[in-house]
Specification:
Number of helices: 3
Radius of gyration: 13 Å
Strand content: under 5%
Largest sheet: none
Order of helices and strands: HHH
Shape: globular
Number of domains: 1
Distance between the termini: 30 Å
Helix content: 55-70%
Mean pLDDT: 90
Structural class: mainly alpha
Low-confidence stretches: none
Length: 86
């Protein structure tokens, strides 16, 4: 496990940056019900699901999707604290 609680090799730094950007667009949106925020959340969820299906389930079959999604969101928060959006 890496220091953010995710299994090693599940998410690259580049992928985490993309996920964090999407997360920022919906989690901290000035208008959470806006189409833009909803689209960002949908794109985030689709990306997380893809990572889970392709990389997590084959290696960690007992890890649940809700827990994985929670860990990804925590990793995004940590990433954004260290790398604030411009």
């Amino acid at each position: 496990m890496s220091e953010d609680g995710l299994p090693k090799g599940v998410v690259t730094r580049t992928e985490l940056a993309v996920l964090a950007s999407l997360f920022d667009r919906f989690e901290f949106a000035f208008d959470p019900p806006s189409i833009s925020a909803k689209e960002a959340e949908s794109e985030f969820d689709n990306y997380v699901r893809k990572l889970f299906d392709e990389r997590v389930i084959p290696v960690h079959p007992r890890l649940s999707f809700p827990l994985f999604r929670c860990k990804i969101k925590s990793a995004c928060r940590a990433f954004l604290r260290k790398n604030p959006p411009s």
